[in-house]
Amino acid sequence: MTDNALVRVEHLEDGAVWRVVFGLSNGNVLDGSLVEALTDVFRGAAKERSLKGIVLEGQGAHFSFGASVEEHLPERVGAMLHGFHELFRVMFDASIVTVAAVRGACLGGGLELATSCVRLYATPDSKLGQPEIRLGVFAPVASLLLAERVGRPCAEDLCFTGRTIDGREALLLGLADGLADDPVVPALAYLRERLLSHSASSLRFAVRAARAGLAERFRTEIARTERLYLDELMRTEDAVEGIHSFLEKRKPAWRNS
After folding, report:
1. Strand 105-107 to 127-129 pairing
2. Collapsing DSSP states into helix, strand and coil, what is residue 215?
3. Is pTM, for the whole model, over 0.70?
4. Is the pLDDT confidence value at 204 over 90?
5. How far apart are CA 130 and CA 151, in angstroms?
6. Do 140 and 133 touch, CB atoms closer than 8 A?
7. What is the dihedral of CA 221, 73, 116, 29, to 10 degrees?
8. CATH classification of 2-181 is 3.90.226.10, yes or no?
């Protein structure tokens, strides 16, 4: 087992499977420090020749409440976005079969992280959503990846409305691949029963091949989407108002500009 203050990595099946549990707070908010710690885990995973799959879960009752809202403030948002998007680039580069085990809230950046995984298992009563629009902003990673799992109409509905769905609806939409009271059980079973007998190196080539187009599109389009967010969205009054109103626990006063 490998531990640091923010991420615990349990090595199973002689190191062929990792169980990665992240977070410290009740909501496992993906702030800069936690994102950096997760990025380091996947950089390390890329170097482990015998590693075949990773189960990714939040500690405690929730997967993640999402990215830090405080880090969305104008003076901090550039560094936050760059670090968060680097995590996904590193995950693509690692070419590891990653399975998300979702309990409780899986919102915003948390759902973006879970959506990027190859498989997603959830509890029936888990809460999944992209609520960024309610804060006057949008979800860059979900804008690119969510449609890959649920199709464009469903992805646009979730991103444009900011609504939250439970695990049952997530399964119907194809966002979740299965439901369980403890989603770690089917997540580990998937790796053990379906992948453990395969060559680790061949699996990585298979992941690279299957996700080559997606990874290339992500690298190209996330840079464009990040510029849209920083150079245009964050110059509007409503984006700043949305973040401040959330932090101040009040209803936003939109000016539509």
Report:
1. parallel
2. helix
3. yes
4. yes
5. 15
6. no
7. 170
8. yes
